[in-house]
Amino acid sequence: MALPLVQELIFGLVLGSFIALGAIGFTLVYGLVNMINFAHGEFVTVGAYVGLIAAQFLGLPFAVAVVAALAVTAVFGWGVAQVTFEPLNDAGAVPLLLTSIGVGLILRNGIRLAAGASPQYIDTTRPTPYRFEELGFFFTDQQVFIVAITVVAVVALHLFLNRTMIGVAMRATSDNEDLALVTGIDTRRVRHVVWLIASAFAGVAGILLAVSRSANPSLGFGQLLLVLTAAILGGAGSPYGAVVGSYILGIGISLAIAFLPTGVSEFGTTMAFVVLIVVLLVRPGGIVNQEVRHS
After folding, report:
1. Could you identify which of 33, 206, 212, 279 might form a hypothetical disulfide with 44, taking C-beta atoms 3.0 to 4.6 angstroms apart as the criterion?
2. What does 85-149 look like in DSSP terms, one character per residue?
3. Segment 238-283, tens digit of pLDDT
4. What is the distance, to the nearest Å, from the Cα of residue 85 to the centroid of all Cα atoms in its chain?
5. Which is nearest to 107 in space by CA: 36, 27, 46?
6. What is the pTM of this model?
7. What domains can be seen in the chain, in order of their start residue?
8. Type and span of the H or E element at 242
9. What is the largest CA-CA distance in the chain?
């Protein structure tokens, strides 16, 4: 029996939250470093395993594990960028793109060698369901937590971009890096902060995915297509557009799986490709009309 529309919307909001946390970091790097980072998915995977170690093996409270995943992944992603991407900053987009593909492959296989290929689970208290039998839907406290932590992260990013000097400098650099340099903005410092923030968001996405699913070496790579599609749908380089694009994509996939014929809905990931191609053909600038090829 098909679940009611409200139930599918709830599933879509949860899926959109996972995508949004990944897409924000991805699009920040694109907008400020001018680089498509295909290793971003591996940063998500690192966050999942850091959360697994903190919560499962060290027995830390889950809130502390989230902070650990955020902090460790931020430093890890920043370190990887300083060693691999920043030295190639002036080499152009294609060398950076190819390097990120190679770095992602190395990290993914390195994680597989270190942690094994089998999925590993974080034991948490069983989610408490809240059922509304008359209306035919339910949600769990875990789902509420995932959506809430995404909202808190987005609000924190908004305040950072608009209420701090470094946040304003990031926006200025994103608009015009040459002009930002002329006005005295330390764009190198801005890039450091971008890598830290982007990787931190990936770390939070990773531990939330590990809790709701499992930690495995391909966890982040499996999310990369959705993250890329959401970023382009929202307007590459725009964190706000990425958030909107993520929820549209998440809800769209949930509704498609629920209401399309079984043979079609099984191709849920393929639908992300369809959305990506349609957006590029019809509105290359995405929701915020920020053209991919010019940003």
Report:
1. 206
2. IGGGTTS-HHHHHHHHHHHHHHHHHHHHHHH-SS-B----PPPPEEEETTTTEEEEHHHHHHHHH
3. 899 999 999 988 998 888 877 776 666 556 667 767 777 777 787 7
4. 19
5. 46
6. 0.90
7. 5-282 (1.10.3470)
8. helix 239-259
9. 62
